[in-house]
Automatic annotation (TrEMBL):
Basic and acidic residues biased stretches: 7-41
InterPro entries, A to Z: CCR4/nocturin_mRNA_transcr (IPR050410), Endo/exonu/phosph_ase_sf (IPR036691)
Protein name: Uncharacterized protein
Swiss-Prot/TrEMBL GO biological process terms: nucleobase-containing compound metabolic process
Entry similarity comment: Belongs to the CCR4/nocturin family.
Chain intervals for the UniProt region annotation (Disordered): 1-49
Native organism taxonomy: Eukaryota, Sar, Rhizaria, Retaria, Foraminifera
This protein's UniProt keywords: Hydrolase
Amino acid sequence: MTSIKSSKAEEKHSAIKQEKESHKSAEVSEEAAEKEQEWAEKNPTYFKGSDNPKRFIVGDDYKEELARLQKMEKYRGKYAELYQRKISEAKTKNEKKQHLRIMQFNVLADGLSGLYQNSKMKDKAFVCVPEEALEFSYRGFRIVEEIMRQEPDVVTMEEVDQFE
């Protein structure tokens, strides 16, 4: 019985993922987001609670936070669009095999960003980078923005020292 439910949940999730991919725009339809949220709540790996860092992230959650960041006086005029990234595809002989999107990301540890260096160490800081861009409260959501934009199946990260 459990395997049947699990199988149906996987099928539903697969159908939702296919629907998302079929949209030409980067926006996910409200209906697809609702279906995805329904699936997430039934999935045994879903963690409830908005303050839980492991919770399932719905597409609009991060968009709301990015919109808030863009409007903040502190970042006005400094919020730039993300660069377009070139994605490398591994060539395969068997086209019938499933595909897996893997993203590797060096997120620059907050402690290594140079924001917290004393004045004697300023020569080791990043050159021509606004301090606001190095703050994790800003960078963290930009990292999430890039991950959500690429829609990888697996994300690996280096230099992670922020866990919430």
